[in-house]
Amino acid sequence: MLLSELMKDWPCTVLQGSIRQTINGITESSTTVQKGYVFVARKGRVQDGMQFIEEALEKGANTIVTDRVHIDLSCIPEEITVLVIPDSSLFISYASAMMSGNPAEELTIIAVTGTNGKTTVSHFIGQMLRAAGKSVAVIGTTGIFVDGKFLASTEDSMTTMPAEKLHPLLRDCVDRHVTHVVLEASSLGLYANRLAHCPITIGILLNIGIDHYEEHGGKQQYINAKKQLFSLAKKMIVNEDDLLCYEISKEMNVPPMYFGSDHVNGEQGELVIHVPGKHNNLNARAACCALLLLDYPFCEIQKYVSALRLPTGRMEKYSQDGIDVYVDYAHTPDALQVVLEALREEGKNVWSVFGCGGDRDHEKRPQMGAIAAHYSSYVILTSDNPRSEEPAQIILDILSGTTGFATPIDVIINRRYAIRYAIRKAQYGDIVLVAGKGHEQTQHIGEKILPFCDMEEVKRAFLDRNHLDEKS
């Protein structure tokens, strides 16, 4: 594409160079620059793209775009085009869509946002649409799936892909004759304008918890990020049971469709849902609303919902020696509570193994400690992606919420040993919940990202248990 064609409908100031040149791609990451690329020097939350202009030029960038007025041109060769635009994150979204031929306009796109449940609802919708004979892609935390088959992981397990990656993927979906795309819309993705030029047919608001308050700078900023989906989607679906979601839904220009624990768009009819937990019953109802808005009759939807299955790492069950183990992604207070409530309904002893992520919301730690102590028979606190923080300090933060509970609590910082300890101690008929990582395949400790899978560790723990039993 000619740079002039890309910029004809976008305000810009040319500081040097020419816009009459061919460009081959656009990126905000200097590591992915190729010859003829536009490099967008955007200031991120951690790093400033201005620091990587030299690297981008060395790799072949022929255009630099920034939203900073004051830029030192002395280090940029005269033949390199330099443009100043009003908003670099919006420009990346616009340019990525343009250079891919605006593929979102050829697809039916459903975007799911909420603190908890995005992955499950996305996969539920995908499963029902496939049952209805549609070709569907599901894009989110657990990866990219086309017609139920795993295609690839998302970069850094990002919930919502950067626009420069998303639009080429949507073009690939069109080329594969996919008709429907279901994607997870994170608050950070919405705030960063990753979906700004991705026309959304249906948006779904599941719930609003506290998990990302710190990252956004406060509760209201987090809510405002979620609310951006209102302006992007033609139609909205809202969880009526979540009071905050219900309140902000009144601000929508078009009245949304509501769902709740006892209804789907006001329909009180019984749905046969074979997935564990009241929260997953609610997730299934959210998915049903999406099909209703796509003009599927309720009686037809009932046929599809009975075959729903949970995605990997969402109450994923493994049973051996009379012990049921569940691996779940629950890493927020709300998510941990609903999972433990579901498991307690079985009337058995519940062992909870969990931790909290480092460099993330600190307020949730004591809350999760209190929830685990209240709903569990035994609690084992351990590490869960401590990142740059000291694991012991994170655990102390969690422990501060357990004061006053009589629940036995052990601390085993090494997650592998914590899982093995729980399975070794559990008795016939007990339940073990390993929470926080779910589908994740790594553990982030300090600057190291190490291979780690909770379910694989569970299976190894049973091998060790049986080996010890044989010896004794």
Q: What attributes characterize this protein structure?
A:
single chain, 472 residues, alpha/beta, Udp-n-acetylmuramoylalanyl-d-glutamate--2,6- Diaminopimelate Ligase, Chain: A, domain 1, UDP-N-acetylmuramoyl-L-alanine:D-glutamate ligase, Protein-Tyrosine Phosphatase, Chain A, 9-stranded mixed beta sheet, 6-stranded mixed beta sheet, 22 strands, 35% helix, globular
Overview of this protein structure:
The chain is α/β, with parallel strands linked by helices and 472 residues long. The protein folds into 3 domains: 3-98, MurE/MurF, N-terminal domain (Udp-n-acetylmuramoylalanyl-d-glutamate--2,6- Diaminopimelate Ligase, Chain: A, domain 1, 3-Layer(aba) Sandwich); 102-305, UDP-N-acetylmuramoyl-L-alanine:D-glutamate ligase (3-Layer(aba) Sandwich); 316-471, Mur ligase, C-terminal domain (Protein-Tyrosine Phosphatase, Chain A), CATH 3.90.190. It has helices at 3-7, 53-58, 88-99, 118-131, 163-175, 187-191, 213-216, 219-232, 243-249, 278-293, 298-305, 333-344, 364-375, 391-399, 415-425, 454-471; strands at residues 13-16, 25-27, 37-40, 63-66, 81-84, 108-113, 136-140, 143-146, 149-152, 180-184, 200-205, 233-239, 257-260, 263-264, 316-320, 323-328, 350-354, 378-381, 409-411, 431-435, 442-445, 448-451. The protein is globular, with a radius of gyration of 24 Å. The protein starts with a helix and ends with a helix.
